[in-house]
Amino acid sequence: YLSLTQIEYNENEKSLQVIINVFMDDIELALNKDYSIDLNLTTKKEPKNVDQYFKKYLKEKLSFKYKDNDLTFNYLGKEYEGDLVYFYLEIKNINTPTSLEIENKILIKHFPEQQNIVKMKVDKKRRSKILNKTNDKALLKF
User: Which of 80, 95, 103, 108 has its CA 20 to 30 A from that of 68?
Assistant: First the structure.
């Protein structure tokens, strides 16, 4: 059980651009259980408001801090590709970050062996961490 969160600082936009990919069947199971729904992703039965559930789930399971300030991300949307769901998020109005604290609890409640890989790029510098049930927070320094 694996997810990947890629964060890249965009100097021109002064924003952090975040792409998260998770396995579709895992996220579907988690949301169905957490919200007592039946998503039927990628079928004709998929609810029109599925993005509301994804947005709510990500807001509950994912947080970012910079210099002890909570950062709010905008949910831009999602894309299905094969058996993966890609989520697109953006955090605006950030000057070049020297560090970022991230908490990632995606899927951990339902899959105790879940690992959430976090990769971040600022300028040409890269940092990465693997988060899991016992260690769901990371501080990435640049």
Answer: 108
Name every residue whose Cβ is closer than 8 Å to that of residue 106 and which is 6 or more positions away in sequence.
3, 5, 20, 22, 27, 58, 61, 62, 114, 116
Cβ contacts of 31 within 8 Å, gap of 6 or more: 37, 39, 53, 54, 57
How far does Cα 76 stand from its chain's mean position?
12
The token pair that represents 53 in the structure block: 């559930």
pLDDT, tens digit, 9 for 90 and up, residues 15-37: 999 999 999 999 999 999 999 99
β-strands 137-141, 99-104: how paired?
antiparallel
What is the average pLDDT value for the chain, to the nearest integer?
97
84-108 pLDDT, tens digit each: 999 999 999 999 999 999 999 999 9
Tally of CB atoms within 10 A around 124: 5
Q: Rounded to the nearest 5°, which phi and psi values hold at 131?
A: -105, 150
